[in-house]
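Ex. 9. Protein: 5'-nucleotidase SurE.
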Amino acid sequence: MRILITNDDGINAPGLKILQNIAEEVAGPDGDVWTVAPAFEQSGVGHCINYVHPTMISEFGPRRFAAEGSPADCVLAGLFHVMNGNAPDLVLSGVNKGNNSAENVVYSGTIGAAMEAALHRVPAIALSQYFGPDNASLENGFEAAAEHGAALVRKLIDGGAWGGETYQTFYNVNFPPVAGGGVKGTRVVPQGLRPKGGFGIQPHQAPNGRNFLWIRGSAQNVASGDNTDATVNLDGYISVTPMRCDLTAHDLLDDVAQRLE
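Predicted structure tokens for 5'-nucleotidase SurE:
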């Protein structure tokens, strides 16, 4: 199996090393793993692509590249330049330092990479590690992802629902904020929404009198509704959420059409 890996935390992020190990285990001795990751951290860029200026790409080693662009740019670089149009069997994005559950999904560059792969009909999985008091002080805070990642990816490859007539399915996986041995299992659940989730602004005045704004996130140790991703993560379960790039509110189409008649 040929696997392309990327992330949004940057080429030197510890989570990418965890993902490399996961990918190598999944690819097997006869497979190969290619890395194209951002040269610098790109957290929060979502599905951004840099089409107004060129993206520099550098080779760091065999099948290992860094691109000065977003995670989606890295997927494009991997598919059409580094791998020379020979599509991989799978794209893995992560392992993100921090959860991409609930409203975090819409901001996440980790998710953006998986979305870009899915738009090119390449199977893709985004993986993120929730952090909290039970794993933040561990020697390896990514322990849950490291111990359970490869087995879960294999299960999704073999038994997941892939494809789609229009938009391709991809998967969002979040590992709970616990040690590896504390993982209770896996739940397939929808994306949730934390009360008062999202980002806000904190103003700051520099010593020279100029005004700056810091973007601040909301509390992450908050449940996101019954049987949804952040809720099961906080209860010790890995969440698996099938997703597509289609943002249409299909349940409202008929109603809105009637309202506009």
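Check your answer against this statement. The helical segments are 14-27, 71-82, 109-119, 143-159, 229-234, 253-260.
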